[in-house]
Each structure stands twice: as C-alpha cells, then as structure tokens.
Amino acid sequence: MLAPGGGGHLSSAEVLFEVEHVTRRYRLPRTRLLGPRRELVAVDDVSFTLRRGETLGVVGESGSGKTTLMKMLLRLERPDAGRISYYGASLTREVQVIFQDPSSALDPRMRVADIILEPVRVMRLPGDRRQRVYELLDAVGLPPDSAHRYAHEFSGGQRQRIAIARALAPRPQMLIGDEPVSALDVSVRAQILNLLEDLRVGFDLTLVLVSHDLSVVRHMCDRVLVMSRGSVVEEGPTREIFSAPRHAYTRLLLDSIPTLKNRRAASA
Amino acid sequence: MRRLPPALVAGAFLVGLVVLVALVSLVWTPHDPDHVIVPDRFRGVGGGEYLLGTDQFGRDELSRLMAGARNTLLVGMVTVVIAIAAGVPVGALAAFYRGPLEEVAMRASDVLLAFPAILLAMLFAAVFRPGTLTAMAAIGIAFVPVFARVVRGAGLQVMQMDYVTAARTFGSRGWWIVARHLLPNVGSVLIVQATIAFAVAILAEAALSYLGLGTPPPTASWGRMLSDSQSYLYQSPLLALWPGMAIAFSVLGFNLLGDGLRDLLDPKLVERLPAQG
Amino acid sequence: MAESLLVEDLRVLVGAVEAVRGVSFELGAGSRTGLIGESGSGKTLTALALMGLLPDGLRAAGRVLYGGRDLLTLPDDELCALRGDRLAMVFQEPMSALNPVMRIGDQVAEPLMLHRRLGRRVALAEATRALMRVRIRDPEEKMRAYPHQLSGGQRQRAMIAMAMACAPAVLVADEPTTALDVTVQAGILRLLDELVEAEGTTLLLITHDLAVVASSCDRVLVMYGGKIVESGTVGQVFDRPRHPYTRALLDAIPPVDEDLPDRHLRAIPGSVPGLGRFPPGCPFRNRCPNADGKCAEMPPLAVLGDHSLACWHPVEAGI
Fold first, then answer.
1. Which residue of A has its CA nearest to C261?
2. Does the pLDDT at position C262 exceed 60?
3. For a tag site, which of A133, A150, B140, C299 has the least CB within 10 Å?
4. Full strand arrangement of the beta sheet holding A174-178
C-alpha cells in the first residue's frame, strides 16, 4: 500500500532493496511436554522497496517485527517465505549496522583502532589502515588519541561514535540504525542525530532507522513504515503519516506520544 | 589505584611462597631429599642439623617438603593444562555452534562430571601403571567438563553481544569470532576457574598419593609423606603435621587467589555500584 | 492526611563522592512534581534517600521532613511503618521489583496485611479490588498469576496497585514507563493520573523524558550533576526556561509535532561526566555556552517567586 504522491523524485531513483512478501516464523518451545508446538509469526508478508539515497524510518513497538526485519535485510536471518533482493555489489561491505547499546556493540577487550578496523580486516580491504583509523575518528568527531584506548574509557555518546566509525570503515552505501540513540543521555542524542545526518549527506548514504521513538523518525526520515504485529500497517512520506495517519494503529501510536505542548488540564 | 581484594593479597602471598620454595628446591635443599641415613631416623624438630627433623628413613623432612612443593606445582600445572587444552575448545565450540554439537558435548560432560576424579584415577591406575603421570592425566580429564561448562556459559553470554552480531554482518567466519571475541572475553572466568582447579588438583593428587596411586616412592610428595607418617604417629606425630599443613596452606592459597581474582576481574562488581539516574 | 514533604539540603555520599550535592525542595500536599535528570544527575538517589531505601554503603545527610519528623533520622521500625503505608514507590523495572516466586495477589495483599493488619482473606479480597482499580483485565485470574506470566504493562499496573494499596500520601515513581512501549506508557500515565487525582496523592515523578513531565505534572525540578539547577511550574520551566541547561535540553529534542527547517538540532556539546567527574562550581559549566570564570563558584539558588534557578548567567526569559 504505497501512499500516492510524495517523494516523486525518489521513485525514479535506483532501487537498492526490494522486499517481496517476506515472512519469518519462529518455533516457540512447547509449554507442555506433549502440547502442540506453537509458532510465532514475527514478520508477516511484508513488502517494500528501498531506493538509493532515501532515509527510511521503521517504526513499531516491541514485538512488531522491526528487529527481525532488520536482521533479514542484513542476512543474519533467512525469510521462511518471500524474497529480499539487494541490487548493490556486495551487501556485506555496503550495508552496515549501528546498534542500540554501544557498550554491548564494542568488544571490551579490543582497542578502538582494532574495533574500527575489524570489518576492514575481516573483508581484507586494501588501503593504509593506520591512516583509515584517523580519517574515521575525525569523521565521527573523536580525537586521534582515541585509537589506542579501550571502549570503556568513553562515555555512551562517544562509544556510539566509535560504533559509527566502525560501520563507516568498509565505505558502505547504506547504514541501518537499530535504535541508535535510545540508550543515550537526552543531552547527547542530538549530537549523534546531527552526526548521522552529516555523514548521510557527506558520504551519500542510504539510511534506515529502526526506532520506537517517533520524534527521532519524524526528524530524520523521508519515508516511514509503521509496523504492528509483524505487518506493515501503513507506509508513506513522513509528513503525511504524521499529519494525516490513516491506519487506526498509527493514530493510536501518535496519540500516545507525550509532547511538551500537551499539558495536564489542571496546569495552566 | 583500586584497592586489591584482601583475599587476592593473602592468596598471592601463600601461592608465591609455595612457588618460591619449589624454585629454591631446584637448586638448593638443606639435604638431599631422597638420601637415606638410617641412623638418623626419627630425629625431632631441631634435631642437630635437621630443622624439622627426619622421617622413618632418616631423610630430612624440610628438604622433602621443599621437593614436594615442586611435585605439587607440577601436578597442578599439568592437570590444569590438560583440562584447559581439552575443555576450552569443547566449551567454545558448544557456545558458538549450539544445536546438536552443544547437546552432545554437554551430555558427555555430564557423564564425565558424574565420575569423581579419584574414581577415574583408580580406574586409570588399574588399567595403566599407577604413577604421577597417570594421576595427572586422570585428574586433568576429570576437570575437562568443568572447563567446558564454564567456557560455554561465559561464551553464550558473549555470543549474545552486539559486537558478535556486528562481526557477523561484516562476514566474519566462525574461527575469527571465536578467536577475536569469544576467547578473550571468557579469559577472566578461565583464570579464576584455573586457579580453583589448581587447588582441587593438589588435593586430589595428595589423596591419590595417600592411597598409593599417585606419585611413587621415593619421589617426595606431600600426600605420600602424609600417608607414610601414619604408621609412626606415636613415635613422631609432627611428621604428619608438616605435609598436612603444606597441603592445607597451598590449597587455601590457590582458593583465596581464585576468589580474589574473581572479585578483581568480575565486571559485574563495577556495575553493582548504584545505577545512577 | 494531606501533609507536605520537605527536603532540606539533602546530600548522598557514594564512598567519598557526593552524588547528590545539597538538594532542597518541597512537595506540597497533593501536588505533582516531575524530577528531570540524565544519568549521573542524582535523581534516583534522591528518590531512594527520601524513601530511606539507599543501598548499603551509601549515606544520606540533610533533612527529609514529613509529618513533623525527619525521615533520615527515623528509627528503622518507624520508617518501615511509614513506607508502603504513607510513602510508596514504583520502580522502573517491575520484573525485578516484584518477587518472581510469589503470586501477584499475595504481593499486592502484603502491604495491606502489614500496615492495615488485615487478615489474609480480607487482604486478598482487598487486593483484587486494588487490581480492578488499576484496570488489569481478569483481576481474579491475575491474582493467581506469577510476575513472569504478565506483560510488562500489566506488571507495572500490579506494581502500582501494590504501591497504592494503602492509599499512600506520597507516591514516588522512578521512571515508571521507561521500559514500556509508547502505547502502554500512555495507559500507565493515564492510570497514575487518575489514581493520584482520586486519592489526592502527592506525586514525585522521576524521569529523563521532559514530555512525560509536561503531560502529567504541575511542577518541575531539573537536576544536573547532583544539583537542582532550575525549578518552577511546568509553564515557567518549559515555556520560559532560564537555566542554560534546561534551555539547551529543550532545544536538543526533536519535536514530534512540528517540522524543523533542516535536519540539524541544536546539540549540547560534550557528554554527561561520570559520577564524581562533574566540574566543581556549576556542574554544567564545561558544556555551557554562557560559562565564564565566575562559574567556578557554585551559583546560589535565586528565587523569583515560584521559579528558582542556580545560574550566574541565566538565559533571557522568552523564546
């Protein structure tokens, strides 16, 4: 269900991902010894296309299937039905991910330089690696001497910068952010969002933001997929979805967000 | 500087003492520990040139204790090395591959775990020849499931971390993840487990030697010395005391060291500081 | 039963580090106050200190006056008699705040048996009513359930039922909705609002989410680095912030209901220093655009009627 109008220039752009009727089921453990095996349909017949240069928000609550969908895009999981086509050259190199919790995303036993270079080493990419570390540190706004330190010596926001530097190391075309600012202090979230935006423009990246935070998605994304219980219930340009949501669930979601402007009736 | 846990300091001191004594015994002991001088049997403490007296064959007790330390450390080291060499790969592979491999490895380790080390050693002694090597191999093999379990448990936690997922997204193969992420991050649990296994190995070897299934005479071994002294308890009760104390203190030392290392290396202790918010 | 709770110069020591550095505020009877802070602000420790629930090894100094008594010096048995009865608390993670091996019904009935001295049967009947008040579906069935059999939202409702069972005068809610989905959060906030309204409870709502405070509180306390840097009514603090930190925080949040001209936010430079690493003097001065040499000294709390702030160089009123 593509919303009409909106993003006219995008529709002519090159398709990067084509997701067609993708379904992913999980087998649940039996609750009783001889009981029936139950299944959980995490992603249920989802289809969409992602075009180069686009910023797509995937919004949904826990259990909506947004994380499973992300894992399938990254080929960490295989769909049980349907097809995901990637039209770039090498998905492994060109699509990188940033996780929610930067402390879990960085190996505590590795120095920052080794963390950042890990993808380069695994993929055996050519180039001066030392120089690449300093370039990347500079790109994410960290001082050069960070290279020799360990991740735990940094604050949450700085750790997320390290994770972003690692994601940029293989010169990707596309970044997937899985709740990239949710675990950060409110006063550092804006820095990371600004950084992602600068990198997106600077490196001409396609960005997919998976988030439960609608304000972040509204701020960053051109287009939004709203997911609920494994299905995409609404899809369209951000502005339209936020100003005129058509699906009941989208409306519920939007009405649920507390805002600074909606005050308690009693407090004038 | 962070304050070191007291258990670590005390444990390191005792272990250090045992290691020092063992090292010194390599180059110097007051007397030849195996030299029999029958006329000098059962000298008391401070009996002439013998500081801690002599045993039933007139051998210098202090020299034998020192040489025994060497034997003890050797046994501890070899068993722990055997256990790590076999247990760590099994545990790491089980954590990494999950599925049927993990099931088989873990059930096998359950079976092995059900055998007491002593029983296994007696079995080995019956099949092969009783001796230090047999004892070490038996104790080492008995420890394999312990290490496999510890590494698997810690490894499963590591496998859940996002840095492992990230490594997968850029196409890392299994051995890379195991070598670069899994093993370094289970290192601290491994060190703690090794220290505690060391203590158990010392005790097990002493018990085997006491039963006559461990280190054969005339090599000095604390367990053997303890067992020999039994027959002369009325003549020379102190002969039982020295090796007993040596065993007790070194086991205590390694246990304290293990506890102390756990306190020092456990990152959860740092997290236990009140969560700020 | 309406009595205000007065906190005077509260300090909490974590080892040698002062994590809460002299905090004073009043919770007027029946008022709803939001306490805003990031990590390291000391907001949770402040809450735990006034409940007398600080973990071992942490010490509190200052005074917490309630009903003419100082809760910090109250003997344990008297404090226990107050806690769960007059003072109650709701935690962020109900899974760890509820006992996993005890049925929900027994847990909700516990404060009633303890403080109201009700018999088990009466207390359980009362607990069922408490679960109905928090609008848990099938309360009879949920009474017999264990915490893991409930969803996150239902657990938080059970937790609230437990806290509200004895109709406390003061309810402290520490990030009660942070672990929940947005739609569930909305329900929990609505419920808290109704209960507090109906019982005339004094509410202290602790959160990092400014919008949650705006939608459910009358007054706001803004904490940073163990200090209250600004306080006032929701209107004063959110519409006319005077402290550079409050102002910067409001600017840094992407608004959900309006479009920005471009995708750049006015970010606050630097990061929140860890515990004990805040600069001496004004804790925000190493990140503040207005800071100068004077800020090395802690600014006093200037009181402008209802609105107070601790800053040498406040931002001009008005947006």
1. A219
2. yes
3. A150
4. A95-98, A174-178, A206-211, A55-59, A223-228, A231-237
